[in-house]
Amino acid sequence: MSSSTTSEPGVSSSSLQAAFCFRCIECGDTSEKAGQDFRCAHCGDLLEITYPRWGNTELRADELKSTWKQRRLSTIPADLSGVWRFRDLLPPLANEDNTITLREGNTPLYQLPRCSRVTGVPHLFAKHQGMNPTGSFKDTGMTVAASFARQAEFRWVACASTGNTSASMAAYAARGGLRSLVLVPDGKISWSKLSQALDYGAVTCQLRTDFDGCLRLLQELVRRAPVYQLNSINPFRLEGQKTLAIELMEQLDWQPPDHIIVPGGNLGNSSAIGKALLEMLKLGLISRLPKLSVIQAEGANALVRTLRDGAGKRLVPVQAETRATAIRIGNPASWKKAVHVLSETGGACEDVSEVEIAQAKAEIGAEGIGCEPASAVTLAGLKKLVRQGFVKPQDSVVLVLTGSLLKDPDFTMEFHRGEMFRGSDKESDSAALDALRRPPIVLDATLDAILRTLAQFEKAKS
């Protein structure tokens, strides 16, 4: 394995170096370059990307909005991307030919009338990132990070993953002519997600550890080999993911909702969305900040405990356990960034049970859109925030759905067959979910049997 680049990823063109820089989130040190572990050389904390020119920029909010709208009519690859269309607020590539895109972004914003009735919040929407090319929000960040990996002339990219990151990275690596290495926890990943990485040609290693153990090994690997890491520790990932918020505001005609609710796993996505909101406010693209709230599973609630037991000053890790595999993370890397955006936007952080997640997932499915289990924590969390009075009935709320229903079909089938909580301490609590279950019905192959079934369902609804 070799690389023709230096061990420091980032831009190499001196004409672009002033366009953005890396800043440590802890000590504030800035640099035009970053090491392969994307850690501060002074204190070891995470880096973020900032734009020094924005202080005296010629960027005008009305001109940006007009430019982005005009690009929707363009057919060039960058404009067909719902990420690169907003490239004025992204790190610039020295050569646009290095752009790796699968036309990511451009995801729908749905109204949720059934869920509105359930929650008592009439103005309820879902921004469905599961409609990205590989079925999750990871694509919006991967297009930027993978493009910078190609610009830096790395041959190998790598990630630790619970599933969605590996699928996205492998797809963008294949599209960009890069080789990819995936580290996943053995037995703790949806086969549907893993199958994507395999199909896209990734070298896939199932390690006898959890996600956090995979990430630790990845951090060691990139310090010893010319491998470019594409986890959300990579700040280019978060720059791409922040375009979700820009696109959302455009869809809402630049009128911010009162609340945006996001699932919390490794906390890169909530950090990215919060960063975008703060940047848009600074640039005059929006007039006020929505409250950004993060919801976690009870069994993987490190941020909840960090805020409750560590006062947001120290991470309180957990041994993560939840059927919502995309957020089964007990030692989230971006916890400090998430604490910052929660504080800046006045958001909340809550956790929800496995039964509440399953119920919310079925309720979203009844809207005809569907999502993976991790996405459903947003609706479950909204119910909790309404009960607490944090979200008022008259408020407008956007739930961020991070992954497709097809990412974890075993969860869906076990739920509808009534097998999910059978024999567990949650079985009695789950009985209330029976009305939401729609198990397949085995019948004799006769028309009479089908007609009797239709009649039974008509009678049940009358």
Question: How would the blueprint of this fold be written?
Answer:
Layout: H1 14-17, E1 21-24, E2 30-31, E3 47-50, H2 61-71, H3 77-80, E4 109-111, H4 113-119, E5 123-128, H5 138-151, E6 156-160, H6 164-176, E7 179-185, H7 191-199, E8 203-207, H8 211-224, E9 227-229, H9 235-241, H10 243-251, E10 259-263, H11 268-283, E11 291-297, H12 302-309, H13 335-345, E12 349-352, H14 354-365, H15 373-388, E13 396-401, H16 409-416, H17 427-430, H18 447-461
Helix pairs in contact: 5-6, 5-9, 6-7, 9-11, 10-11, 11-13, 14-15
Model description:
It contains 18 helices and 13 strands. Helices cover 39% and strands 13% of the residues. 50% of the residues are buried. Helix 5 packs across helix 6 (164-176), helix 6 packs parallel to helix 7 and helix 14 crosses helix 15. Among the domains are: 109-134 and 241-416, Rossmann fold, CATH 3.40.50; 427-461, no CATH class. The strands form 3 sheets. It has a 6-stranded mixed β-sheet with strand order 4-5-13-10-11-12, sandwiched between helices. The protein has a 4-stranded parallel β-sheet with strand order 8-7-6-9, sandwiched between helices. It is an alpha/beta fold and 462 residues long. The N and C termini lie far apart (67 Å).
